[in-house]
Write a structure and sequence with these properties.
With about 800 residues, this protein is an alpha+beta fold. Among the domains are: about 100 residues, Serine Threonine Protein Phosphatase 5, Tetratricopeptide repeat (Alpha Horseshoe); about 150 residues, Beta-Lactamase; about 230 residues, PPM-type phosphatase domain (Phosphatase 2c, domain 1, 4-Layer Sandwich), CATH 3.60.40.10. It contains 26 helices and 19 strands.
Length: about 800
């Protein structure tokens, strides 16, 4: 038995259909399978209530998503069918959208003549309706075709038109696509500076907005630029970011292409083992997703590779595979092209039949127009309802309700009453009469002359279209307010959440018969949204009040921490002292939080310059507190006890730290790891608690190991060992905490590790100490990427 739908059911379905199609379109390019799933759900609901317009939108969305899944035959059929329906409805914008999608489909079929035809058709439509954003999108499509047929000057000229249109538009998704295309055009015209500029701007926008596929393509573009320039390190960085993002979003065609590109980079660098590894990974994914274009490229590359290696047997094998796949690819495209022509012929035939049918049956046009108006009205209610439900501020909510209801019906008086069951009154936070706001209205539930009281007591809607004839059914006329202009018509709807009555929404008109059934249904539908919005606004206020309280507390805490940072900075040696005592040096200091457990320390005692990189237990506020105790103990060891030997200083510092923490009633096992150096002339003395010393001399790295014990409580502590080294000119000394090497990052999210840090230090010896600090910081940030910094970082370098 067919389910009978009430008006309220239809309103709910219409709202859900709109939501599903909206979400499906937003997911269309990035997640086409999910987009098709949502559009099919919308199509099912649209069929249920016979909403032809939304059915057509769903088919258009499905057809466009099928392009990105390489299902070109189905895509052409669905989009052409949708276009015919939109033309019947005279929906010009969607006709333009269909033309654009057809242009895209033919583009991927390599039918560039047909692609240009449809892109230009979409541009013409968008210009007629003055839609700037979509005009820019059409220019991007046209420019993409010119890029593909290698007409780069025309591509650049076309794309710049689109780019200029977007200057004052908020269409970030299209801006990203156009900037990427401009990057490609300028790359092929060998203007690498401009190309790098466009790709970089595109990437920054994509990162902010989450446009993953364009992000991948833009990094691919930068990879090609740096490959051309021979800057292989930078090229690897960008292709790795493309690969990482492709893996994350499971964009397999992007992954296959970028693995192939990574292999080409290694081949350029003569690293054949890695090149082959990435080539085979790429072709494995290409076979998995049946992307024969990538397989074709793979065999072409391998044929050339083995030809250079003089391995003629394998070279011939790959040449044969290349030609076989290329032939298959051309046949496939030719077959689809023929199929698309057949689809167009069939659809043109259907279109002619429909024209004949339209001429013979004028009633059909009348019914179609009526249905369209009805759909537009329902869509307006759905959109208005969503707008109302989205408002969290009560005043904003009330103003939206007033402005919108006035467009739908005669509303000389409009109000929302909130029922206070505890005090048995109705409060009116919002009451507008003849365009004037009225405040401080309350109505007692004992008042028998008020429609709102009847409505709440009976929990029913009240519809009155002739006051003189119908009012006495609901109120005691004697008790109706005197000296007040009474309505000719009234419509009052209870608003509730489930079975809980919140209040009423009411509209009065000074004209009779102002509220027929369709107006009643509109207000009932909106009443459901109003009840949700009122409840949300109440919750939002409670959350906001709590948030303000938390914000104030956080500000107090943050102010205290910032003050603590000023105190901690006061104990760190200033830059001018470092420059004076160690002229050719750097300090890389990157706290994880506002305050840190790591600190660097420096003193001059007699003719010795003492300096240290220390890592106190923990980080943030607890680490900073421990660092103050440890810093003070170091200062006392020098100033009070006149010690200058690093081992003796660490022994005394340990005693003072333990002594300080033993004052607590609770057991405290905190302390620090440290590398402490003393330089006098060419004589270096070093002692360490867990933290080693590195000396780079003539390209070799010398490591002096630390004692395996901390500054703090430790089972069986031993005196710290002082190591003495005679330095040579151009020796470089490095001491550091463990924050740098323990940081997670890179493509696989693993630790940087000491081995990589050693290689990094050796690789920067040609740089000045200032350049070394900048390079180390930049490498750390790139390695870390979007991951959280896990610990404080402190690295000190000193050149002799």
């Amino acid at each position: 038995m067919k389910e009978e739908l009430t008006y309220e059911h239809e309103e709910i379905y219409q709202s859900e259909i709109l939501r599903l199609n909206k979400d499906a379109w937003e997911l269309n390019r990035e997640f086409p399978k999910e987009s098709i799933k949502l559009a099919n759900q919308s199509l099912t609901l649209s069929n249920k209530i016979n909403n032809l317009h939304q059915q057509t939108i769903s088919k258009f969305i499905i057809g466009t998503a099928q392009i990105w899944l390489s299902e070109y035959e189905e895509a052409l059929e669905n989009i052409h069918e949708a276009k015919l329906s939109f033309e019947k409805e005279n929906d010009i914008l969607y006709c333009g959208n269909c033309c654009y999608s057809l242009g895209a489909c033919y583009f991927y079929l390599s039918d560039f003549k047909e692609s240009l035809k449809w892109f230009f058709e979409s541009l013409k439509i968008y210009q007629e309706i003055e839609n700037i954003t979509e005009q820019a999108n059409a220019f991007n499509g046209i420019g993409s075709v010119y890029l593909e047929i290698e007409n780069y000057p025309e591509a650049l000229k076309t794309l710049e038109k689109g780019y200029n249109l977007l200057e004052e538009e908020e269409a970030d998704n299209i801006k990203a696509k156009v900037m990427h295309s401009l990057g490609e055009a300028t790359f092929h015209l060998k203007d690498y500076t401009k190309s790098e500029y466009y790709f970089t701007r595109c990437i920054n926008l994509c990162k902010r907005k989450g446009y993953n596929q364009v992000f991948i393509y833009a990094h691919e573009g930068l990879t090609n630029i740096y490959r051309k320039k021979g800057a292989f390190s930078k090229a690897h960085t960008h292709v790795d970011l493309s690969i990482e993002k492709s893996q994350k979003i499971e964009f397999k065609i992007g992954l296959a292409k970028n693995l192939l590109l990574k292999g080409k980079l290694y081949l350029d660098e003569k690293d054949e083992n890695n090149a082959l590894k990435y080539f085979y990974e790429a072709v494995q994914i290409a076979e998995e997703i049946e992307k024969i274009e990538v397989r074709c490229q793979f065999h072409e590359i391998m044929a050339k590779y083995y030809e250079k290696k003089k391995n003629h047997e394998l070279s011939i094998y790959h040449i044969k595979e290349y030609h076989s796949i290329n032939t298959q690819l051309n046949k496939q495209k030719h077959g689809l092209h023929l199929k698309s022509l057949q689809i167009k012929i069939n659809l043109e035939k259907v279109e002619k039949e429909n024209e004949i049918y339209k001429i013979k049956n004028k009633e059909l046009k009348y019914r179609s127009d009526h249905l369209k108006k009805n759909n537009q009205r329902i869509q307006t209610i759905g959109e208005l309802g969503q707008k109302i439900a989205s408002k969290l501020n009560l005043e904003e909510l009330l103003n939206v309700i007033y402005n919108q209801i006035n467009t739908l019906m005669s509303a000389d008086v409009l109000y929302i009453g909130i029922y206070d069951s505890k005090n048995e009154v109705i409060n009116f936070p919002f009451y507008i009469k003849e365009n004037k706001r009225v405040y401080d209205i309350k109505v007692s539930m004992n008042h028998t002359g008020k429609f709102t009281v009847w409505c709440i007591k009976n929990k029913k809607e009240l519809v009155l279209n002739d006051f003189d004839k119908e009012a006495s059914e609901y109120i005691t006329l004697v008790d109706a307010q005197k000296n007040e202009r009474l309505p000719a018509s009234a419509l009052i709807i209870p608003i509730k959440i489930k079975d809980r009555l919140l209040g009423v929404i009411g509209v009065h008109s000074f004209k009779k018969n102002s509220f027929p059934k369709d107006k009643v249904n509109i207000l009932k539908a909106l009443g459901a949204y109003v009840s949700i919005a009122l409840e949300n606004a109440k919750s939002y206020k409670q959350i906001n009040d709590l948030y303000d309280l938390i914000e104030n507390k956080n500000k107090e805490i943050l102010d205290s921490i910032n003050y603590a940072k000023r105190l901690q900075n006061a104990i760190l040696p200033p830059a001018k002292i470092i420059k004076k005592l160690l002229p050719d040096s750097f300090v890389l200091y990157l706290p994880k939080d506002i305050v840190a457990g790591d600190f660097y320390w420096m003193q001059k005692q007699n003719n010795k310059v003492l300096f240290a990189a220390a890592d106190s237990t923990g980080h943030g506020v607890p680490g900073a507190m421990v660092s103050v105790v440890c810093n003070n103990a170091l200062n006392r060891s020098i100033r009070e006890y006149n010690l200058t030997s690093p081992g003796e200083i660490l022994d005394k510092t340990r005693d003072l730290v333990i002594q300080e923490f033993e004052k607590s009633d609770e057991e405290v096992n905190d302390g620090m790891d440290i590398a402490l150096c003393s330089i006098e002339g060419n004589r270096l003395e070093y002692a360490g608690a867990h933290n080693q010393l590195w000396i780079v001399r003539k390209g070799e790295l010398i490591e002096i190991k630390a004692n395996k014990q901390p500054i703090g409580k430790f089972d069986s502590p031993k005196p710290f060992t002082t190591h003495t080294i005679e330095l040579q000119k151009n020796d470089v000394i490095y001491i550091f905490s463990d924050g740098y090497v323990d940081q997670f990052g890179g493509v696989k999210g693993k630790k940087f590790k000491i081995k990589a840090f050693r290689s990094l230090i050796l690789s920067i010896q040609e740089k000045t100490m200032k350049e070394q600090r900048i390079f180390l910081e930049d490498t750390f940030e790139r390695w870390k990427g979007d991951l959280e910094q896990i610990d404080d970082v402190c690295v000190i370098g000193v050149k002799i």
